[in-house]
Structures are given as C-alpha cells and as structure tokens.
C-alpha cells in the first residue's frame, strides 16, 4: 500500500515539474497568466491527474481566473500529448485543472491574524 502511494506521489512530482515548464514555455494562449503548478495528485489507477494551480497576482479577479481555467482546459490535450513524450508511462493520466484556493485563504488568514494582533496591541496600549 505504501509503495503504491509513493509511486503515485513520485509520478505526481514528475508531472508537476514537466507541467510547470510546458505551461510556461509551450502554451501560447493569450488568456493564460503567470500560472504556478502547486501540486499534482495522481489517482492510484493513473486514470486522472488533478492539477492544482494559482495565478500570480490575480487571486481577487474572478474573470481572470475563469479565463485562465478556460485556457488550461483547452490546452489539456496538447499538454497530455507533450507529457506522454517527456514522461515514460504506460498510460498517461487525463488532466483535470483546479484553481488552488488554499494560497489565497492562507494569505487572507495571515492578514486577519496580523490585524487582530494590531488591534490587541492598540487596546492594551503597547
């Protein structure tokens, strides 16, 4: 069981590196911003790879995020073919792109904590 997890984890890491490079250098879609691939989770049967990404500096603009999602979705076939050339697997997983909300949520939580600390310091006279 642990061996299977580590295999899919290794495949996910390799796909993450290749996808980051392919998206940056080979996808020529004008809708695509500065995309960072945060994580790739590969299903145990290698049927799907869930790709979690963020877009640099555009976290608060839903229309920009929608354009990036559409650009990535339209590039799925191209990216899968290129991955099959770069990564030697018997079966290349189907790609599913998901915007990674965790980075935005982490920044928001950090800002709220900083604000609460400032409020406490102001109330306590520090």
From TrEMBL:
Q: Which UniProt keywords apply?
A: Cytoplasm, Ribosome biogenesis
The biological processes this protein is annotated with in GO are: maturation of SSU-rRNA
Q: Which family does it belong to?
A: Belongs to the RbfA family.
State its location(s).
Cytoplasm
Which stretches are transmembrane? none
Q: Which Gene3D superfamilies match?
A: 3.30.300.20
Listed name of the protein: Ribosome-binding factor A
Q: Which InterPro entries match?
A: KH_dom-like_a/b, RbfA, RbfA_dom_sf, Ribosome-bd_factorA_CS
GO molecular function annotations of the record: ribosomal small subunit binding
Chief location of this protein within or outside the cell = cytoplasm
Self-association state and partner proteins as the record states: Monomer. Binds 30S ribosomal subunits, but not 50S ribosomal subunits or 70S ribosomes.
Q: This protein's superkingdom?
A: Bacteria
Q: What does this protein do?
A: One of several proteins that assist in the late maturation steps of the functional core of the 30S ribosomal subunit. Associates with free 30S ribosomal subunits (but not with 30S subunits that are part of 70S ribosomes or polysomes). Required for efficient processing of 16S rRNA. May interact with the 5'-terminal helix region of 16S rRNA.
Return the GO cellular component terms, semicolon-separated: cytosol
